[in-house]
Structure to design on (288 residues):
């Protein structure tokens, strides 16, 4: 798909119900045009992962997601051999009277016995959108390995040889900044810090994603969410949480942010007991 400008990308994203500001659209546009990974950093729930999903939709490409976590290693991200199928193949060959060791070794390390993990799948799939989600949760060693893969989109498999991407995937790397990601990886990418949406944009997102929501309820939820983000909370609500909160209120038939319903559904917006108790004691919900 030919996207000729950031403004056109804003329009296309809007058609898929993702309301991007000019800064984010420009960063994403440049990542597409320059063939560079897009590194998105920001609080949880501000729309980083959702952007990758929406990009996959508008590019009509599969989304291949690598969810990072502590202890993730190269094998879990690249490929693995299907030992169970290999063993079954050896037993079948033995039953058929095949005893040629060289032939058997060549057969069990055939591509059909290789399990492609996210990075290999992304390299072999054209087109594709690769989402490396929450890279800050992975270890430093994996971060260094990922940098190597993103440099040339080439994977060497000793038993099969080198696999190179004919057309590199669109890559979105996200971080919630639970730790600092090394400069080397950031330098490989185009960087954008994703803020919580402005009041007007958050209202627009709520109305777009939840058509049954009244404008009064959307404005009250967005205003209250902004107040919650000003407080010293363990986890302030992102747009994902305000969407959940609004949906919970709508499920209960709310047309505006009644303080009683707001308190009863607060668990849709806040995920820590300390935050819930602090907000309930503060009286913030009474000023919606």
């Amino acid at each position: 798909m030919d996207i000729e400008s950031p403004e056109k990308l804003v329009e296309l994203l809007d058609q898929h119900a993702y309301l991007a500001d000019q800064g984010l659209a420009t960063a994403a546009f440049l990542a597409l045009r320059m063939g560079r990974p897009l590194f998105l950093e920001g609080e949880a729930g501000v729309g980083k992962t959702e952007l990758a999903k929406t990009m996959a939709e508008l590019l009509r490409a599969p989304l291949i997601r690598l969810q990072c976590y502590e202890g993730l290693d190269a094998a879990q991200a690249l490929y693995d051999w299907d030992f169970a199928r290999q063993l079954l193949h050896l037993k079948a060959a033995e039953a058929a009277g095949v005893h040629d060791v060289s032939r058997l070794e060549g057969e069990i390390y055939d591509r059909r016995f290789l399990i492609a993990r996210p990075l290999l799948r992304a390299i072999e799939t054209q087109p594709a959108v690769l989402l490396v989600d929450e890279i800050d949760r992975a270890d430093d060693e994996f971060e260094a390995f990922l940098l190597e893969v993103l440099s040339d989109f080439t994977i060497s498999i000793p038993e099969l040889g080198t696999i190179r991407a004919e057309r590199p995937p669109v890559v979105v790397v996200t971080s919630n900044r639970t730790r600092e990601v090394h400069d080397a990886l950031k330098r490989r990418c185009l960087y954008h810090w994703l803020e919580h949406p402005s009041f007007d944009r958050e209202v627009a997102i709520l109305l777009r994603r939840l058509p049954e929501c009244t404008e009064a309820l959307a404005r009250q939820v967005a205003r209250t969410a902004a107040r919650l983000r000003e407080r010293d909370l363990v986890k302030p609500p992102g747009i994902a949480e305000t969407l959940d909160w609004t949906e919970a209120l709508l499920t209960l038939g709310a047309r505006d942010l009644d303080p009683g319903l707001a308190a009863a559904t607060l668990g849709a917006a806040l995920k820590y007991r300390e935050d819930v108790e602090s907000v309930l004691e503060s009286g913030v919900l009474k000023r919606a």
